[in-house]
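Show me a record, fold above all:
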Amino acid sequence: MRSTPVEVGGAPGTIRLALEVRDGGALRELTGEVGQNLKILSRGVGVQVHHRGQTLTIVGPADLVDRAADVVEQLVAVAQAGWSLTGADIDQACRMLRADPDVRLLDLYREVVTIGVGRRQVHPRSVRQRAYIQAIRDHDLVFGIGPAGTGKTYLAMAMGLSALFAQRVRRIILCRPAVEAGERLGFLPGDMTEKVNPYLRPLFDALNDLVGFDRAQRLMAKDVIEVAPLAFMRGRTLSEAFVILDEAQNTTPEQMKMLLTRTGLNSQVVVTGDPSQVDLEGTRRSGLEHAVRVLEHLDGIAVTRFTDVDVVRHPLVSAIVRAYDRAAADRTGGEE
């Protein structure tokens, strides 16, 4: 419940607004350990947020106080619906509502992806994540493009597992080009799975988080989830499969065409990548950018472009992404 705003001394236009949160559980989720979430909220909106008893007091410029109050009320509604709130959730809510004040957070949290194991549920945490999930539901080929930490790979894995356990596909195929990020690792020991394991680690991390390590190992042992190095995909037909090509910015146009033309009946392909992190040598073109340019307007294909607003990792990651983007824009502008 909001109180009437009161003007306070200091800078002109500074007001104080009190918000009463009567749900103790929701209040604890909102404030976080030792008030850490409120510190993130204060930085994210540009106000001061203080907590005493069941009352939150927000102090700052009138427009920012109103925005902070909206963020608080929406986060309280999310907590009351049973969701936990992390610092990353608070930071992302601030960034998202700053970019689009009409977003309803609770609507995003209710758009769940249900995974068969223990009825695990995953929800989108931004508008573009919701669009990405919907695109995968509605299209046979989806490109998820954007910076690190935006959930491209994790949500693709969640949708693949959801399709597998609902028996819409018979297997999941994980694929990624074996390109090092600016280093040469040399010979890697072990069988094929062990050799490509370092390159597919982000996919395995998402898989283990969603179904647990033991269940993931059993699915892989039965080839229900298959590790398929991109170099060995030629000549195959991938029917009744959910295919995830990760780090696709490091494919060549020829490799991308080869993979996409493997698609068989009742299959889906999700291609993820970050065009700003291409590790191909010399002047070789990225197959991801080429494929999107050539295929984007075809029926049955969707492209979701993520931005720093969609970053769901540590709040600092979003700031890092923005800083690098600004540096790249400045460098490009100076060269013109």
Remarks:
- The first helix runs from residue 24 to 31.
- The CA atoms of residues 192 and 229 lie 9 Å apart.
- The first strand starts at residue 6 and ends at 7.
- The radius of gyration is 23 Å.
